[in-house]
Amino acid sequence: RGVAAATPDLAGRRVVISAGGTREPLDPVRYLGNHSSGKQGYALARTAQARGAEVTLVAANTALPAPAGVTVEPVGSAEELRAAMRKAAAEADAVVMAAAVADFRPANPVGQKIKKRDGVDPDPIALVRNPDILAELSAARRPGQVVVGFAAETENVLAGGRAKLARKGCDLLVVNQVGGGLAFGTDENEAVILAADGDETPVPLGPKEALADRVWDAVVRRLPTP
Ligand code: CTP
Ligand code: CA
């Protein structure tokens, strides 16, 4: 289905989506980051808006045009993304974590640019765990709120996805196999939508918009009737 022909089955619903990848500061000019483009999250925002939702897009370090009619909140680190998501989720009917959140951050970011010194090897970078935002949002969900996660796996996609879904406590987990050029930065994706209620919906390789629409189909089916 094209976006223009979308039925307004998300009218009157508020949705919040995270997109992109977090950056964890080492010093004022350097960070640990990842290759997430944000394209899948932006496709989710566009399709939800086209289906009538009021959309907040928490965008971590993306370089994509802001979708028309969508509220975009730029964030940098996982800590900033967490704060923005918690705030927006408190008012949302559905929450989708499509962002790639760094699992670890530098333990001791410094306020001045790190300098090299002749003949001195650099110190190793000590890391600490970031909070699991999806697990937190799932644990704090409002009655009837639908919480969705994404997972890219390189092996044991379905079994690993099922275990991750249970661990996170979300309603839906969209899992896809990575490697071989799929997913990062591309315009297409192939996935399986796993549901906590046991449902399993394979989505064939196609535009990220098409996968986004299948995710909203699964969300709409689980939202309480208004
Ligand atoms: N996620 C999150 N907070 C984190 C890490 C991940 O909210 N600190 C979310 C991601 O946005 C995604 C989902 O959890 O929706 C799954 O991410 P993934 O990296 O696959 O899960 P992890 O629990 O970090 O497992 P792994 O050790 O395989 O990376
Ligand atoms: Ca991870």
Automatic annotation (TrEMBL):
Annotated segments matching region Phosphopantothenate--cysteine ligase: 15-226
GO CC entries: phosphopantothenoylcysteine decarboxylase complex
Biological or metabolic pathway of the protein: Cofactor biosynthesis; coenzyme A biosynthesis; CoA from (R)-pantothenate: step 3/5; Cofactor biosynthesis; coenzyme A biosynthesis; CoA from (R)-pantothenate: step 2/5
GO biological process terms, semicolon-separated: coenzyme A biosynthetic process; pantothenate catabolic process
Positions annotated to bind CTP: 103, 113, 131-134, 150, 164, 168
Listed EC numbers: 4.1.1.36, 6.3.2.5
Co-factor remark: Binds 1 FMN per subunit.
Entry keywords, A to Z: Decarboxylase, Flavoprotein, FMN, Ligase, Lyase, Magnesium, Metal-binding, Multifunctional enzyme
Occurrences of domain DNA/pantothenate metabolism flavoprotein C-terminal (ranges): 10-220
Gene Ontology molecular functions: FMN binding; metal ion binding; phosphopantothenate--cysteine ligase activity; phosphopantothenoylcysteine decarboxylase activity
Catalyzed reactions per annotation: N-[(R)-4-phosphopantothenoyl]-L-cysteine + H(+) = (R)-4'-phosphopantetheine + CO2; (R)-4'-phosphopantothenate + L-cysteine + CTP = N-[(R)-4-phosphopantothenoyl]-L-cysteine + CMP + diphosphate + H(+)
Top-level taxon in the UniProt lineage: Bacteria
Obligatory cofactor(s): Mg(2+); FMN
Family per similarity comment: In the N-terminal section; belongs to the HFCD (homo-oligomeric flavin containing Cys decarboxylase) superfamily. In the C-terminal section; belongs to the PPC synthetase family.
Protein purpose: Catalyzes two steps in the biosynthesis of coenzyme A. In the first step cysteine is conjugated to 4'-phosphopantothenate to form 4-phosphopantothenoylcysteine, in the latter compound is decarboxylated to form 4'-phosphopantotheine. Catalyzes two sequential steps in the biosynthesis of coenzyme A. In the first step cysteine is conjugated to 4'-phosphopantothenate to form 4-phosphopantothenoylcysteine. In the second step the latter compound is decarboxylated to form 4'-phosphopantotheine.
The name this protein goes by in its record: Coenzyme A biosynthesis bifunctional protein CoaBC
UniProt lineage: Bacteria, Bacillati, Actinomycetota, Actinomycetes, Kitasatosporales
